[in-house]
Design brief:
By secondary structure, this protein is an alpha/beta fold. About 40% of the residues lie in helices and about 15% in strands. The chain has a six-stranded mixed β-sheet, with helices on both faces. Strands 8-7-6-9 form a four-stranded parallel β-sheet, sandwiched between helices. Helix 2 packs across helix 6, helix 6 packs across helix 8 and helix 11 packs across helix 12. Bound molecules: pyridoxal-5'-phosphate (PLP) and zinc ion (ZN).
Length: about 400
Amino acid sequence: MYHLECIRCGARYPRDEIIYTCPKCDGLLDVVYDYSQIKLTRDDLKGPLSVWKYKALLPVAGEPVTLKEGGTPVYNIKNIGKDIGMKDAHVKHEGMNPSGSFKDRGMTVGVSKALELGMKSVACASTGNTSASLAVYGARAGIPVIVLLPQGKVALGKVAQALMHGSKVISIKGNFDDALRLVREMCIEYGIYLLNSINPYRLEGQKTIGFEIVDYFNWEVPDRIILPVGNAGNITAIYKGLNEMKKLGIIDRIPKMTAIQAEGSAPIVKAIKTGAKDIVPEAHPETVATAIRIGDPVNAVKALNAIRTSGGTAETVTDDEILAAQKLLAVKEGIGVEPASAASVAGLIKLRKMGVIASDERVVCVTTGHLLKDPETVIKMCDKPLEVDATKEAIKKVMGW
Ligand SMILES: *Cc1c(COP(=O)(O)O)cnc(C)c1O
Ligand SMILES: [Zn+2]
């Protein structure tokens, strides 16, 4: 049993109403369950991690559209940890999902919901991974997918996925915020189901990252979860899910939700630092981490609440710090992530140096997408392969043997 509820005015709407914000006040919506009816204990949650393990807290009744998402690995980053004086710093590598990013958690739920609601097509605006994931799940469900991308600003691997899985890909001469505005209007006008993170059902899927983190640590809640933040759906979703587990008595506290943004695209960080109630949108966001190149995050109000109420914080990192962290993860830990994902680890390093994060904290950085998503940035950062003749002599020569 669940319904939709406006976080601003409290208005309630039936679960099958096709709305994305409150028709009365335009506030963001939450999926609210009748928690007294959910009987879920730690004992019910034995077995391997996966999104659908937590079905009791997901808004889908029948068989979901699934590619076995979730169950992503958690790694102790021992070598980076040693450098910054931490023993208990971890990465949860969401790049290991079916399409290579955490967006799959939202899309398995969102596309299942689209079918349940009888919708005939789905759409999104995207910095890349949302489109890749929607393309994959739309293909799996057998429904048409339309994606709007900001021209020239989407990493190659993500465009390749959207195209290959059969979506209609439209590249607009504008940024992500323009694309989202357009797709929202289009979806309402043509009755297409919108699967951006303004859709509260999509966020329900993403909250399973938080479930898996506490489940992995045998319900011992880590001190802090660090995330790269763009549209701010993910940090919001994880916070909501963990609150639900606390309500059900499965966990006893909430980690400090910590948001990292790129310096050129940091409206959430600015609002946290100034204590403002809402963000001031950034008209021209810029960063090498294209997945978080968003100036007007739709879930800002929810995210500010998540950060503040959990006692977390928000910090910026530069593009150089992001790329350095990406390389550190790759070289020192064997973990390949895309630039936006590395922002979480760049943030960990910075906040540790600033003394905000203590040496004995248990921290989990969510690395949101896979290295192969953005091969062009990687190639620019690394030396070219050594080209030699096909002889042993030539190899000996370049090796200096
Ligand atoms: C979507 C995405 C983000 C940002 O997530 P939000 O929910 O928009 O804050 C970060 N990293 C990657 C790789 C993403 O694909
Ligand atoms: Zn409202």
